[in-house]
Amino acid sequence: MRRSARRKKTISVSKELGTYVLSTPVRYSVEHNIRSLTNLFNRLAARDHSSAEDLVGLAEEMSRRYFDGRLRPQSIRWVTNQNISRWASTTTSSGDIRVSHRLQAVPRWVLETVIVHELAHLQIGPHSKAFHELADRHPRQADAKHYLEGFSAGEQFSRG
């Protein structure tokens, strides 16, 4: 929760690094408004694309759209142990894809590009020219690269 002296009447909720942040006026009583806040957070959680089932469904959709359904991971899951410079990783021998929980806060199209990139690793392991031809099938791949560079810089700035 973030209390703001500038905020007088309204509240807002945003998602920062995978966590919901409630911004309120200084005098806002959470206890008095707990029921409406609970409903608000429940609605937000229902819209969130961060569930494990959604991740599996998104991988299936990306495989159908960009690889004719040929590239399917054995498993795909959210993890919290990815290196700070890594958004996702694939073990080509087992077909397992791990996606950093930090990506739960990004727009869907960014997550799509990361999944397409990891699906491409199921066919070609190293980052070769042939690999990039596969991975770049998502039309916003270049945009996502820039987005993630900025997102990463923002994370580093917030850590101090």
TrEMBL record:
CDD domains associated with the record: M48_yhfN_like
Signal peptide (residue range): none
Membrane-spanning parts: none
Gene3D superfamilies: Metalloproteases ('zincins'), catalytic domain (3.30.2010.10)
Boundaries of every YgjP-like metallopeptidase domain copy: 78-147
Database matches in PANTHER family: UNCHARACTERIZED PROTEIN YGJP, UTP PYROPHOSPHATASE
Name by which UniProt lists this protein: YgjP-like metallopeptidase domain-containing protein
Species name: Brevibacterium aurantiacum
